[in-house]
Design brief:
The protein is globular, with a radius of gyration of 21 Å. The chain has about 350 residues and is of the alpha/beta class. It has 10 helices and 15 strands. Bound molecules: adenosine-5'-diphosphate (ADP) and magnesium ion. The site of magnesium ion has 2 residues, from loops. InterPro entries: ATP-grasp (IPR011761), ATP_grasp_subdomain_1 (IPR013815), PylC_N (IPR048764).
Length: about 350
């Protein structure tokens, strides 16, 4: 085993892996594949989470909402000097983009994610649709919940179907499918549980919901893998699958497909957002054959495993890039036509720690 860039052991940190143990495993494989001695560290708020004890080392972090979170992250990075940090939590990505990622980068770590301005747009389904539209990427017509009547006035042919969803949501939160007659009620219902960009109950709830024309067609999931550091914003690979079944807002079964038709869409999105690392997109090929983007997540999404089992190896690609090595684009190739299905599993985690609540 050889040492990493700085001569010592190589540390990869994965933020909030939660149930996604495969990411920890595949980054561990990446260390081995690149023949470097190192460890995968999982940062988690909850030490009983499945990933915590599965990593080579688990580090408990304060809640994102806690002022102690950023100093604790900086402290870890100053001590462990990781080469690469990827988070898979949207609220953590939000905090990272607000300045923390740059402070972590100053410790010498490659941090995946978006700039503050780009993150603000990516986590907002309304702003994202507008930005992509301007960047030449096809999107469904999108309006704020408070302006649903404007959408109906524009293309309200009888029989048109609509989608209502949380503007800052994920995992299909607030999702309602309805026709024109049910739209007002669907907006009201989705508003009732809508949150703001930080996950707190939204104040102007009908503006925290978006309404879109419902696209009818096949749905695809795509990962764009972008460079790190000086290569930020440079598209290195496109990984695509057709969704066959969804479960709890995640792709449950999918078949890998040729990335060629998706690459120009991902490249345009990349030019607009300049991401570092992986970006997960949802697209629907509408009845007119146009690929329209409905959702953008600037991280490893729940669809990446379908690409990995078909031969892609984004973790090794990203780790090589983070170590300043020549990252081989062949690592982002895969076999089309591979069907993958997720399954349940369980592991024993840490002991439950009773916290004192004060009083008698
Ligand atoms: N405009 C739309 N037309 C058709 N289906 C949609 C549309 N918007 C969302 N959906 C469906 O709802 C799911 C969740 O919506 P999405 O925009 O991906 O939000 P989330 O952030 O919750 O994943 C999608 O995977 C898709 O199946
Ligand atoms: Mg989605």
């Amino acid at each position: 085993m050889t040492a990493g860039a700085g001569g010592g052991r190589v540390t990869v940190v994965i933020g909030s892996a939660g149930r996604r143990l495969y990411l920890i495993e595949w980054f561990r494989d990446a260390l081995a594949r690149l023949d470097v001695d190192g460890e995968v560290v999982a940062t988690e708020h909850d030490p009983t989470s499945a990933s915590f004890g599965f990593a080579d080392r688990g580090v408990v972090m304060p809640a994102y909402s806690d002022a102690a979170y950023a100093p604790a992250m900086l402290d870890l990075f100053e001590r462990a000097r990781p080469a690469l940090f990827v988070s898979v939590n949207d609220y953590e990505l939000q905090l990272l983009s607000e300045g923390l990622a740059d402070r972590l980068r100053a410790t010498g770590c490659a941090v995946a994610g978006l700039s503050r301005a780009a993150q603000e747009q990516a986590s907002d389904k309304y702003l994202m649709a507008r930005l992509l539209g301007r960047a030449g990427v096809a999107v469904p017509r999108t309006e704020l919940g408070s302006r649903w009547e404007a959408l109906v006035a524009e293309d309200g042919a009888a029989g048109t179907q609509y989608v209502v969803k949380h503007r800052f949501g994920s995992g299909s939160s607030g999702l309602r499918l309805t026709d024109r007659e049910g739209l007002a009620a669907a907006v009201d219902e989705a508003s009732g549980s809508a949150t703001d960009i930080h996950g707190r109950p939204a104040l102007r709830a009908r503006d925290a919901v978006v309404v879109q024309r419902r696209l009818m067609g096949q749905e695809f999931g795509v990962d764009g893998v972008f460079g790190l550091g000086r290569e930020t914003g440079v598209l290195r690979g496109t990984l695509a699958r057709r969704k066959m079944r969804m479960r709890s807002g995640e792709t449950d079964k999918a078949v890998t497909v040729d990335p060629a038709p998706f690459a120009p869409v991902v490249a345009r999105l990349g030019a607009a957002l300049r991401p570092a690392g992986p970006v997960d997109l949802d697209l629907i090929r509408d009845r007119d054959g146009v690929l329209r983007v409905i959702d953008v997540n600037p991280r490893f999404g729940g669809g990446y495993p379908f690409m990995h089992v078909a031969g892609a190896d984004a973790p090794t690609y990203l780790l090589a890039a983070a170590l300043g090595r020549r990252a081989d684009p062949a690592l982002l190739r895969y076999q089309p036509g591979v069907v993958g299905a997720k399954y349940e599993s369980i592991r024993r985690t840490g002991a439950l720690v009773e916290r004192a609540t004060g009083g008698a």
